[in-house]
User: Fold this.
Amino acid sequence: MLVSLWQVRRSLAVCFGLARKGSIFDCVVATPDAPPPRLVEQVRSARALHVVLGRAPEPPQFKPKRPAFRICWHRLRLWLLAPYRAVVSVDSDVLVVNNIDFLVQRLLARDPG
Assistant:
């Protein structure tokens, strides 16, 4: 399943909003599959990094009543991003009105490593 266009575009809108508010941290658009090629250039123009996480293996006892709940396992993979000491997950339906760098800074202040 390819990530839908509207999901990637909404994620890019969040990245543009964070950049406009002066964020100094990377904005990573993480998707389970590769987005359509025409969106790759838009991701670059938003100064965002794109990461294809792949599909997370589901436990055998996990039987969601709605297929949309399968994305839960994908979201948990965000915390496996190796080069980052702190990860703040922001949904694509967020409207950025202020800089949120303080969230990452607090996480980094707690982590001595």
Summary: DSSP finds four helices and two strands in the chain. The chain has a mean pLDDT of 76. The longest helix spans residues 5-20.
